[in-house]
Recover the amino acids of this structure.
């Protein structure tokens, strides 16, 4: 692994000079000095309700939210993304976990033929800072989802812009989830559209942007991934893992993304639907690829 | 009854350290040192208008709101949930009652085929604290309803998140009512859906979550109840009592819920539609089951 | 007349202890020590535009808003309810009038088949207190209308709850107008529905609630009126006068309401559509019934 | 001309005692000591876009907004009503003009069969006071438009009420434009409806109300105008000029309005569509009628 | 080039006297002492997503947002307009660029037959001032888009009015983008309609207004352009460049606009879709025309 140097980190200008060192610290911690982010996504209990945590093919242990904390605590990860409320109930027992607060959320109950998606900010940055300082929690960043192309897009763009400003004022790293979705969107996984989404994130000043992997028809071309990453500029792109696939297939696809410039990964179901030991092992594999940039062959050996 | 120890209570991290003892006190009082909550629901004068308080099969005394206060004052209960406005008119005569302020409410007049449900916060936490301190009222917690799957879900999720934060800052215990409802919801009592609802409550950081009992087709399986309770994690689940049924049937069902992990009960109509003595007797029975965990056979003897 | 004693007034708990005496004063003044409220409604210039003030069967003097102030100033009334703006233009010449500020209002132009009714708060309680103190106006209370069952119900419930809190903080008496109205409401004058409306007012903590008189099919049963009044608990019920009827008929109906527990009256058109002397005489008759509780026979003699 | 005496001006009670003299000054200036207001309306560049300023029958000079300032500066007028933004660009060269800030505005692009009209407040009263004091501008009042009967009526009623309160706190005179408009309104020029509109303005506490002249079918009856004016009470009524008509016809109609109680005039197109000299001459004629109350015959001689 | 003198600049009255010199400085810098503005538009990564930056006929370098900064840094331009978020990531390396912060933005995903356009303010003026001072960035102005004729027009008019006031308080120059758009607009490029748009900008007090060039049917008449410019009064008009055309054609059209009174240009795609050297060369040509007012023949020689 090539470590990035502290002085090579581009600190956004909305981070005050008194907080620049803290931002660098957060950035180095969240990426384990690699500049690449391995995000363990544990925010789907609102997004997908209990669909991702209970049922066929899902380990029984996943039915209990503490499973997420156990994995996050015992695995090599960059950051564990979940809601503030959940952390407020488990955080005292899992102080070592690096946290990223997911600031908004919605259920999947209203379908897009009924109404366009909208998701709003739950808590203020200052509430997070209070929680962090008061409990010495290891909170390194925040996340927020924008549904581009929704009729409520304007509300989410405004909230995102304000969050990025407020979070940077407090030295937090910001990850935007940007998903084109709504009646106006015919093909959510179109690479050119997703390149638009990463561009929007970069105009809003996000540190990282998480988008859907553009695999509409089989394996996307190098060019398609490149467009998506280039458009983000200095905002780094990570792809969401999507539905559960076989571990090998998952890791191969992830390596492919990293080779073409993705600066990390965001994985939820593919990790937490496994029982604890398997989940820890899988996190290790992802970490080895994303942070350590180990050879894919070497990583796959264990599967 | 096994008493819980003060130092075993998990205090949410958004309770400031200076308020932790007060939170523990409130928690112990509201559960009578048992960790289980017997909630007497008196908030339906807005939700159901006068339907629950007047008519066939309802005792005449229930027509007067003071009936609720008489029951709450003379019975063994965990907490009496009702609106601040009602308490402001009766509280001076019923200072011994343990109160939980229900913060929002809506009538049942607009049906879901006309518009999706929305219910908004009436008063601020600081108003409640003023009322509590100024009048030495025994206010231990607050409650709020979210209609998951409503087109207005986002507004309620945001209000709920902020209320939990503000209430914990003041050491109040928070109960969320979470009901999937709206045009998008086909089967409100589906266990998997309700497990989603308890999961949302846990992500928001509620202390207790009140959901509909998933009894779609006859008695639900142990597994169904277990899914609902597991998904809530450290947020405790209580089931709403639903329509009036025979006392015996009610108590048997409640015992069944408690056996499979429910951490309390929420009962309205089944209590207040009875005349005072009967209501007090019925509260005693519920209390014996929920708080004292007495044998169901022993409890049923009196009916 | 049986005077109520100062120490028998139930002071809502949201009135601060330093303002309790002032609240008692306002309550005694507004009810002339009787506990019963004779409200002269002069807020319809927004609600009904000029329909109530000009046309067949209406005295010419009613075309000028000052007519309302002349009546209120020269008659025996409990309180004169109208908008702050109107008072700000006439109050300097009518300082003796006991005022109640109607805080919201809407015109009757948009019909319910086009859109559900919504009416919003014009001015803040602090603005009213400023006006009151600065000009030594005799402002004793405030009023607000809620349209239950409207698609905008939530907005009005929230405003009402906040107004009651803020007004009580300033020792003002609060009258809620609560009318079920909107596409969802088939029969606005249904007694059971109106009992629901008075229950909502009591849950919000209003001092008085003004509802439509439930006279759907001829004279309503005692039971129907009793349900409406009981449901309100310690919130006192007054019925709106409705359309102009003959003076005798009006007074008989009012006496009937009072006999069954109504704690006052709210009258507009039946007063102000008369020329000044007639209006004063009619106010005297209402006052004799409501406040003095004189015999109906004695009161009717003059008509 | 009969001058009104300072001590005969009815000062609204929401003007603080420390500002009463300033309110009197503003009132006397805006009416040239006559109590009657000659308002030169220059706010239509938003309302009607360029339709009123360019095209057939309109003098070329009117294409440039400065034309309005030239007229206002060189003519006898009561007050020149326009947006703050325009004044901020020309006011330094036209410091002698008496200004009234029109606070809201909308274009005429969305027609009422598409959506009901809504127009919202651009700037705060405190911003106006800053601009006035900082630049020693001669700002005497503010104006605001309400579309009664629009589905957005509630929002505009609330803004209007707050503006009147805030403006009076700063001694400014308030003119409300009140127009019944929207899908619910069949006949905008109905006299009885317009009497409703002036009544609403009086309930909100406006100093002047500007309404459409009710000339539905030929010349309206004296009675119709009287209803409109009586309903306004102590709020004074001025009629908008409407479309361009011949100067003689315009002046005759204006005189007729004044004879029956109108307390001023509001004229836009009929003034500014003329070239400068003609416009000045026409302002003089209006001023002679409105403020000086000269004989109509004498005024018409010059046309 | 005729330089404008400092004391000839018309300073809007909402610029405080203590900031007038700074406003003059900003105005002179942004126009290079010419009074004419050459605006390089780099805000389309939100407006048009990646359509303008990747694909046929677009240089590969344009796929990376840094291309915009390279052009802006190495070319002669008046001001570079883009979002704050993008500047916060690149500004440390491009401190010499004169910036204008585009305050709102929307994507092009929702089409007007689905919903009318709305675009809202991302960040506050005070946030911009913080960023400017803290990092010594060369921020000279702000921009905001209004969609006239949209059903959401009112919201954007209000935001625009407040932004202009707040920005002038801080000595920033304001450019409004004003586009008639929405279901109500049949012909967006109609000259008379665009003259309405420039008139609205002038009523709001903008320094510059950017509108679509009214070239509906071939070359517009002098008269049409003159109407558009006259209507803006002291607000200066610049036309947006529109789709990519040949460089020669572009420059000829621009010169034509300038001859008839346009006070600058706004160009995006026609610049940044070229590779760096070509883009710099083209900026030079535009600068020569707009700021230096060189002869068109002389400028065209290089193409």
């Amino acid at each position: 692994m090539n470590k990035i140097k502290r002085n090579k980190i581009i600190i956004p200008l909305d981070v005050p000079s008194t907080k620049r060192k803290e931002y660098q610290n957060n950035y180095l911690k969240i990426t384990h000095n690699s500049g690449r982010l391995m995000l363990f996504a544990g925010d789907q209990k609102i997004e997908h309700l209990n669909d991702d945590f209970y049922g066929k093919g899902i380990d029984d242990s996943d039915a209990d939210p503490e499973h997420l904390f156990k994995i996050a605590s015992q695995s090599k990860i960059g950051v564990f993304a979940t809601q503030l409320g959940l952390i407020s109930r488990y955080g005292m027992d899992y102080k070592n976990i690096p946290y990223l607060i997911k600031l908004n959320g919605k259920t999947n109950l209203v379908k897009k033929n009924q109404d366009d998606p909208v998701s709003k900010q739950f808590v203020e940055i200052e509430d997070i800072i209070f929680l962090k300082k008061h409990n010495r929690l290891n909170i390194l960043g925040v996340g927020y989802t924008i549904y581009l192309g929704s009729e409520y897009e304007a509300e989410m763009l405004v909230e995102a812009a304000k969050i990025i400003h407020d979070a940077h004022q407090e030295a937090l790293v910001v990850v935007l989830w940007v998903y084109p979705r709504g009646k106006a969107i015919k093909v959510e996984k179109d690479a050119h559209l997703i390149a638009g989404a990463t561009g929007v994130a970069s105009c809003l000043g996000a540190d990282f942007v998480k988008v859907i992997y553009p695999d509409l028809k089989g394996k996307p071309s190098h060019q398609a991934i490149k467009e998506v990453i280039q458009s983000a500029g200095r905002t780094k792109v990570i792809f969401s893992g999507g539905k559960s696939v076989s571990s090998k297939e998952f890791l191969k696809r992830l390596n492919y993304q990293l080779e073409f410039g993705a600066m990390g990964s965001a994985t939820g179901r593919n990790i937490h639907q496994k029982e604890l030991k398997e989940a820890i092992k899988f996190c290790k594999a992802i970490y080895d690829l994303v942070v350590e940039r180990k050879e894919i062959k070497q990583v796959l050996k264990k599967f």
Remarks:
- The domain at 6-300 of chain B is CATH 3.20.20.70 (TIM Barrel).
- The two ends of chain B are 22 Å apart (CA to CA).
- Chain B has a mean pLDDT of 95.
